[in-house]
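Much of the work behind modern protein science is quiet bookkeeping, done one molecule at a time. The fold becomes a row of whole numbers, each drawn from a learned catalogue of backbone shapes. The protein below has been through that process, and both of its lines are reproduced in full.
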Amino acid sequence: MTIAADKDAARVAAYDRRAEAQAAAGPGQGARLAELLARHRGVPLAGYLPIRTEIDPLPAMAEAAAHGPVAVPIIEAPATPLRFARWEPGMALVEGPFRTRRPEVMDWVVPRILIVPLLAFTRDGFRLGYGGGFYDRTLAALRAEAPVLAIGFAFAGQEVAEVPLEETDEPLDLIVTEREVIDTAPGGYSAERLRRT
């Protein structure tokens, strides 16, 4: 099998595993994410508007929006990096590609913290996404310009031993679940990194 076929097979199992994890999850799923983001108040942040069975980051995003810019991803074209439009709780949204929603009015933000959705993750910081490569291209481009904190947000039940990897797959710095924060950065992630530049 090719890497692409391996990833497709892994996605089928990951969708089922995530649905089971969502059904079993209790309240307060985003408490650890909110606590983590509180250490970075005012730093431009990108989250996402959850679809299907994705874990919901909106309560943590709403709290962060009281202290600084919060944005959501915008797909402009296939095989391109994402752009990010400012989001606020309760704002008007319209339909976007791939059953996504987007702000009605685009006010562009360049984030330095990204909350990244995923289908599956490994404890060493790799993720299985949906196959478009949007977050890998985006993280590579942003990391080439300035320090960026990539936070995978998932149910604990989405953890797997390994995911099929390609050279273009960008690792996550942290993974936050309803149970714990997993630091995947070599030597540990330093919160001061974003404040120094």
Q: What stands out?
A: The chain is about 25% helix and 20% strand. The two ends are 44 Å apart (CA to CA). Helices lie at 3-24, 31-38, 58-65, 134-143.
